[in-house]
Amino acid sequence: DAKTTQPTSMDCAEGRAANLPCNHSTISGNEYVYWYRQIHSQGPQYIIHGLKNNETNEMASLIITEDRKSSTLILPHATLRDTAVYYCIVMGESNYQLIWGAGTKLIIKP
Amino acid sequence: NAGVTQTPKFRILKIGQSMTLQCTQDMNHNYMYWYRQDPGMGLKLIYYSVGAGITDKGEVPNGYNVSRSTTEDFPLRLELAAPSQTSVYFCASTPNLGGRNEQFFGPGTRLTVL
């Protein structure tokens, strides 16, 4: 599985868009990009995933570059409840294991 | 649906004691996983199961055992607890293998071994 690189921490003002970057330069053609978040030691929560195209759901948007070597998770209107550790993970269709890095600690400030 | 449930929420063990962490899911998912998470770190896979009667080791299986007799239940057994097993344990499930399916996580069990 491809590995990912994320910033250790980020701040964002409440009500603004939070943009979380992720590098996955060794990603293979059949590997998906997944985003999860973990709020204060709770169980991780799925946010969104994508393969090639940009994706949007009720929680966030995922922008994947054309070469697929990096992606950005966008929380359009961050709230204090979005303070969490965000994990970017790459996983292929035939794999069973999510490889978890340390993630990005996102702090939303009032 | 209750989703993925785990018991107990907290437990303190003495060195050398044994215990079983319980995990149950009511979504009829085939795949189930056990992870551990140490402070400030990401999750590491201990064991996983692709269906009833089938289990396999993950990245950090030493000191643990699992069984999968039903689709719903996937208990994790700790034998001879050691301080290095102090961690938060998460159980997860997913309906199918691979890149198109999200994993659903339980709330975790916080274990301290003294």
In brief:
The complex is a heterodimer of chains A (110) and B (114). Chain A is mainly beta.
Structure description:
The complex is a heterodimer of chains A (about 110) and B (about 110). Chain A is an all-beta fold. Helix content of chain A is about 0%, strand content about 45%. Chain A has strands spanning about 10-15, 20-25, 30-40, 45-50, 55, 60-65, 70-75, 85-90, 105-110. In chain A, the strands form two sheets. Chain A has a five-stranded mixed beta sheet, with no helix packed on it. In chain A, a hairpin with a 5-residue loop joins strand 6 (about 60-65) and strand 7. The model of chain A has no long low-confidence stretch (mean pLDDT about 90). Chain B is about 0% helix and about 50% strand. In chain B, strands 2, 4, 5, 6, 9, 10 and 11 form a seven-stranded mixed beta sheet that branches. A four-stranded antiparallel beta sheet of chain B has the order 1-3-8-7, with no helix packed on it. Chain B is mainly beta and about 110 residues long. Chain B is globular and about 40 Å long. The interface between A and B is medium-sized, with 25 and 29 residues.
Write the SSE topology.
The complex is a heterodimer of chains A (110) and B (114).
Chain A: E1 9-13, E2 18-23, E3 31-38, E4 45-50, E5 55-56, E6 61-64, E7 70-75, E8 84-92, E9 104-109
Parallel strand pairs in A: 1-9
Antiparallel strand pairs in A: 2-7, 3-4, 3-8, 5-6, 6-7, 8-9
Chain B: E1 4-7, E2 10-13, E3 19-25, E4 31-37, E5 43-51, E6 54-57, E7 64-66, E8 76-78, E9 87-94, E10 104-105, E11 109-113
Parallel strand pairs in B: 2-11
Antiparallel strand pairs in B: 1-3, 3-8, 4-5, 4-9, 5-6, 7-8, 9-10, 9-11
